């Protein structure tokens, strides 16, 4: 075990191996008593501690704090790829070739199929006291996807209480890509209270409506006078959501969403370079803001393209910022 001084990255081997490889945890801290624990299993977030309005350190991530406990639920907190969300029937055509992906969600492919990035052991290629960079190489046809794909994800925790997640990818063959992080948030912490009191605002005029298998119809639905209208903040209550919200087109980082807990006073804002955010409430114990491209984009010509060509480099960035307020 490596014991690190304050503000240094800590790495320790857990007493397990997954897929025959050692699993490690890493801790980043900033000067505001905020810290995040990560694992090379799925390049995932295990916990994220921030101060609440009473000065208590609160873990706003829902889920176990040991990587070993995610083997039965590998997507939680993890880096998702090659393709986050769903692809209808696991089929798409690229450059005149039809590709068949893993079918792992009814009749469809979800989060990269059985070979998704969340269940992989990533390498740590760079780290210091405030950031860590993971990498993974996905072989041609892994999960059915074309191209040998090299991916990096970098987590940075800065002094402004911002957690930045930056993605980079290259391929030796034209392919499709859609990366996100699948953290489950509960800004009430471990109080046992569900998220029904959490107030949410999403900066989107439209969603992509879906069929009974949660595959987009290809249309856009205006949120006016619907339960999906979060343009003004409102409590989640007991409504169930698993929908892609269409963010306003803008170059660079844009404000996508906000969430606030009246119980703890914690306010989280989300900025992203992605065109959409999947808002998911699960069983009301936590919610997700998965910044990403739209579901089933390879089969939807009107959606923003997810094609990555062999002479291109994919870049994307999302920032989660945390603060305290009594007047949100």
What multimeric state do the chains show?
Answer: single chain
Count of DSSP-assigned helices: 0
Question: What number of domains?
Answer: 1
Q: What is the name of the CATH class?
A: Mainly Beta
Name the beta content range: 35-45%
Indicate the low-confidence ranges by residue numbers.
1-8
N- and C-termini, Cα separation: 43 Å
SSE string: EEEEEEEEEEEEEEEEEEEEEEEEEEE
User: What Rg do the Cα atoms give?
Assistant: 19 Å
Major β-sheet strand ordering: 11-12-13-14-27-23-22-17-20
Q: Characterize the biggest β-sheet.
A: 9 strands, antiparallel
Helix content percent band? under 10%
Account of the 3D structure:
The chain is mainly β and 328 residues long. It has a single domain, classed as Distorted Sandwich (Beta-galactosidase, Chain A, domain 5), CATH 2.70.98. The chain has strands at residues 10-18, 21-29, 35-39, 44-51, 57-59, 79-80, 86-87, 91-94, 97-100, 109-110, 123-127, 131-138, 149-157, 162-171, 175-176, 180-181, 199-202, 204-207, 221-222, 234-235, 242-247, 254-260, 266-272, 276-280, 288-292, 307-308, 313-324. The strands form seven sheets. A nine-stranded antiparallel sheet has the order 11-12-13-14-27-23-22-17-20, with no helix packed on it. The chain has a five-stranded antiparallel sheet with strand order 1-2-3-4-5, with no helix packed on it. It has a five-stranded antiparallel sheet with strand order 19-18-21-24-25, with no helix packed on it. The radius of gyration is 19 Å and the shape is globular. The N and C termini lie far apart (43 Å). 45% of the residues are buried. Residues 1-8 have low confidence and may be disordered.
């Amino acid at each position: 075990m490596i014991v690190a001084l304050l503000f240094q990255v800590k790495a320790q081997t857990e007493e397990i191996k997954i897929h025959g490889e050692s699993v490690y945890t890493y801790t980043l801290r900033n000067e505001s008593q905020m810290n995040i624990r990560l694992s090379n299993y799925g390049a995932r977030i295990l916990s994220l501690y921030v101060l609440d309005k009473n000065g208590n350190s609160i873990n706003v991530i829902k889920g176990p704090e040991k990587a070993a406990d995610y083997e039965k639920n590998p997507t939680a907190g993890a880096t998702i790829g090659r393709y986050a969300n769903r692809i209808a029937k696991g089929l798409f055509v690229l450059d005149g070739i039809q590709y068949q992906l893993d079918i792992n969600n009814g009749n469809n492919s979800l989060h990269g199929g059985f070979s998704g990035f969340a269940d992989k052991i990533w390498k740590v290629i760079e780290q210091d006291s405030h950031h860590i960079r993971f990498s993974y190489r996905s072989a041609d046809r892994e999960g059915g996807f074309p191209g040998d794909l090299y991916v990096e994800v970098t987590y940075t925790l800065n002094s402004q209480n911002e957690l930045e997640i930056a993605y980079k990818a290259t391929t030796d063959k034209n392919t499709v890509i859609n990366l996100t992080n699948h953290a489950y948030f509960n800004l009430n912490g471990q109080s046992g209270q569900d998220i029904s009191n959490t107030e949410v605002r999403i900066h989107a005029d439209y969603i992509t409506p879906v069929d009974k298998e949660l595959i987009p119809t290809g249309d856009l639905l205006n949120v006016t006078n619907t339960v999906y209208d979060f343009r003004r903040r409102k409590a989640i209550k007991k409504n169930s959501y698993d929908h892609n919200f269409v963010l306003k087109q803008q170059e660079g980082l844009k404000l996508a969403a906000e969430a606030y807990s009246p119980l703890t006073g914690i306010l989280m804002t989300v900025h992203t370079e992605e065109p959409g955010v999947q808002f998911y409430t699960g069983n009301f114990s936590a919610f997700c803001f998965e910044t990403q491209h739209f579901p089933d984009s390879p089969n939807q010509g009107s959606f923003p393209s997810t094609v990555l060509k062999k002479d291109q480099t994919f870049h994307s960035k999302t920032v989660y910022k945390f603060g305290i307020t009594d007047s949100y």
